[in-house]
Design brief:
This protein has 2 domains: 228 residues, P-loop containing nucleotide triphosphate hydrolases (Rossmann fold, 3-Layer(aba) Sandwich), CATH 3.40.50.300; 200 residues, Nucleotidyltransferase, domain 5 (2-Layer Sandwich). The chain is elongated and about 85 Å long. Strands 1, 2, 3, 4, 5, 6, 7, 8, 9 and 10 form a 10-stranded mixed β-sheet that branches. By secondary structure, the protein is of the alpha/beta class. The chain has 16 helices and 17 strands.
Length: 510
Amino acid sequence: MKIAPEIRRLNSPGPISDAFLRSRAFVKIIIGPVGSGKTMTALRALRQVGQKQGGAMNPNGVYVRKARVGVIRETYPNIEKNTLPSWFDIHPQSEGRFTFKAPFTHKLTLILGLDPKTGKPNDICEFEVEFRAIGDRSVEEACRGWQVVAVMVDEADLQPPELLAFLSGRVGRGGIDTSLMVDPQIILSLNAPYIDNWVYGLAIEKNIGEIVDQKLLDALGDRELLEVFIQPGGREPVAENLHNLPAGYYDIQAALNKHRPDYVARMIDNKFVPMQHGQPVNPQFDYQEHVRKLEWDPSRQLTIGLDQGLNAAGAFTQRTPESGLRTLREAVMLREDGSLAKVGARAFGQLLRFTINEHFPELRPHMVRVVADPAAWSASDNEDTQRDWVRMVKKEIGLPIAKARTNKPALRNGAIWQAMDMRGGYAIDESCKHLIRGHLGGYRYMKANMSDGEKRGHLRIADTAYTHICDAEQYAAMEGDSIISDLRGLPRIQPGMMQNDSDFDVFGGV
């Protein structure tokens, strides 16, 4: 076997990629636009795990490590066309022994150290990478018999959601003494997934329940279970890997795909979008900019916006001293599969009360204002003949409920747009998963094309599972000094100014 010269010089794509390489998390994920170097970075991370494994000294005084790792994706043609070129940029096919018989394998001897006196290798890794495709088999069949210290899932969003659970039982079984095993990993690489995709739930919403058990957590020690690294969009000034791309790489692609806005958003700008048709109502929303952990400020009023009906929802917000909008929590009734559940007024009021007690325990009536869709005062679409929706909810939460300032969509949406357009003006807590999905595109306009091929004369918002929580946030967002007057383009009334609503001319004399 030929010995692979080590280490081939590779340009770093950027700081996010570097941080990804350093991560010791059991599951680590890199999400980036096309051309960002994420695939090669993930492959480098895979090789890096192999090089870290423990070993033993052989009779010739050479420290020998052994590592077997894997790469998996949907088909062998895609592995050959899209994954192997990146791997061969790291280790050409001519190095070691490469086999094109499925599953593809590449066996290498990596030189990790040289004797300073003789110049001969004194630290090597007998490294094998196996490329597997799922094809038309089940995940269980595709992973059967696999014993690897680490695995990379390329284009992870295109793979079955059950894959991760199976892999969690296959890694850390690399055919070597487990006492020598160091930091086994599952490595995922992909473009920004649709918000309906399982990887979005894993990476963004941290839905990791199916891979968690106490034995795994104990085995991890000081390692993180999951870490996610999101590269900048390709057209951002800090985009990664631009130094390895031709001039205008992303601008040209964006121009050629102008008719495919979802493609441009995901593949070029690295933004999460819904799989459905229709444009998002809040296109200004940016996950990286707007989503973070927020704290309730008891010194400022808490405003709770409500949208009534069988899919009732509530949004808990505050205004900052600079009039920025902060959405702290949401109240939505979801089924186990994540879909929206129908709920009566009494049950919804109980959900609101639970949310208040759980997240705002020191809240007093004078510290909160609750507002609801004005149509709620005449709502009749409630279960169990609970027609007086407002009265029922008010009884459960023990707080008065006022009518929101308006029900006009232009003003309601404008309150959110105004906050999002202002630098630092909008933020939402990472716990508001349903509302975040709404802003990412679940809350969207109806398709412009009608069945007869004609275009609609005006935009209409589609009725989706995310409409109710987005409406609730809007009702809360309209509360605050000068919010509505600013949206209507009216001058603000300054403190101390007097307004005469009578016909009397105050300057006309007696």
